[in-house]
Amino acid sequence: MTDNARYSRFVPGRCPFTGVATEQSDEDLVHRTLAGEQNAFADLVRRYRRAALARALAILGDPAEADDIAQEAFVHAYEQLATCRQPARFAAWLLTIVHRRSLNRR
Description:
It is built from five helices and no strands. The protein is mostly helical. It has a single domain (24-105), classed as RNA polymerase sigma factor, region 2, helix turn helix motif (Rna Polymerase Sigma Factor, Chain: A), CATH 1.10.1740.
């Protein structure tokens, strides 16, 4: 296999040489957070901050309010993380929190 063929098979999130995943799944990050690794939750925040802001902004129409809701949702998610029944679906769980808090704020 030539070097060009190897690189043409690049799959995002996987090492082009070994095929091993390079990005951790939401489920892994949730479990690491529950085990006490705060950096793991920071990765979840970085991954979903834009989506949380977009969802809140779509409902509220006010960027400042949307930012507040997104922050509150992440705090709530962190505090209640052990109640997340399907860690692999963290994004859906988080965006449900954002959606409900946004509706309550209107």
